[in-house]
Amino acid sequence: MISTTIRIEPKAHKMLRRIAKQSGKSMQSSLTKAIELYYRRDFLQKTNAAFDALRKDPKGWQEELKEREGWDATLLDDIKDS
Q1: How many other C-beta atoms lie within 10 A of the C-beta of residue 30?
Q2: pTM above the 0.90 mark?
């Protein structure tokens, strides 16, 4: 495993140590999980903001709904009757 050293504030180090202790995981594992969760939350917030902006654009939103209708038609592709 490649290792990189970074500097964090003492307060962050203390919280990371507490998280690791409570979870029973290493500090490295806890930090990796925290970064992944932050990344996912940020991604979803940006996605939600983009959809909110799209909903405020009547023409764009109608285009989105029309595209969804096309995808709905594909949901039953290759499904055999029982």
Answers
A1: 20
A2: no
